[in-house]
Amino acid sequence: MNLAFLLLAGGKGERFGEKKQWKPLKGKSLILYSLEFLNKNPLVSDIFIGIPEEDEIFAKKLIKDFNISKVRGFFYAGKERRDTVFNGLLYIKDKNFDLVGIHDAARPFIKDGLIEESVKILAQNPEIDGVIPVIPIYDTIKKIDKNNIKTIDRKGLFRVQTPQIFRAKPLIKAYKKVIEEEIEITDDASALEIFGGKIVTIEGDELNFKITTRRDWEMAELILNKPKIGWGYDIHRTKEGKGLWLGGIFIPCDITLVGHSDADPVLHAIADALLGALCQGDIGEWFPDTDPKYKRAKSASFLKEILNKNPSINISNIDITVITEKPKLKPYKDKIAESVSHILKIPKNRVNIKAKTKEGLDATGEGKAIECVASVLII
User: Which domains are assigned to the chain?
Assistant: First the structure.
């Protein structure tokens, strides 16, 4: 059974404030999430996209740039959703598809296996005209008319999702009647239900929600956030002096640290950890000690530059271990944590500082160097 999909991307974005189908969601246009899913599915033979007429050139370029090979054509959006779907059905009605799937481009998280389950039901049950995914309603439902509030029995009530998959011929026939009789419908199964078609349901997925508002968009971004871990290390030799920098705090003592910048091993280790999590090289590549502009530079400026060039990251937490024989860090740990949190613009409770010695072992244990390691989790 050959299956064509109508992907609906004809919205004007009136409720959202802009056309969201082309808007980048975590670096990729919203429509591409559905397109790539459908393009990979072996049961989907052809994809046709419903778009605003003025967006045709942009849409075609997008498909070409991302090599969505199954897209066979575009049809124009109508005034209402039902009109857009009908335009798509007219576009494919002579192509002899057995099944037609319809999906909202604003639903980027199609559940794996849903298409396979729907097609299997239709293949094994010739009396069934369509399969739709639904979600039970668990919240209390109330009907509110001005000051009149009435609780509605939620038993038997479900939320309906896409993709919905139908036999092509009965769907086209039912939609033709809907348009001719100007019947208002809000989903595609309604067209068949009105004219006696048989629809069955399968379990949908809470994550397969439709992005309608800005809050929905924020939820989609949260779903796509992925944690990344970075690990950083730094070491600097000591020499006689009047103090040193650790975590952006100057600590008076009888030694100092040798380095091209202010030689702050805590901030250098954090910088390397951040760059590691971002897969963007290391501190030596970003701020080479051969560049005179970094001579005696404050290491806090390194972290600020990394964050400025990666504004979308969220630092979940940082764990820092300073390895030194002296100075003793207990009096300064809280100040260092506060300084790091200020530099990175994160709450202080996301920064952990530990101090260790090497029990007199190696150069660090002999007081000839100070080491620091840092691990960071970013979203």
Answer: 3-224 (3.90.550.10), 228-378 (3.30.1330.50)
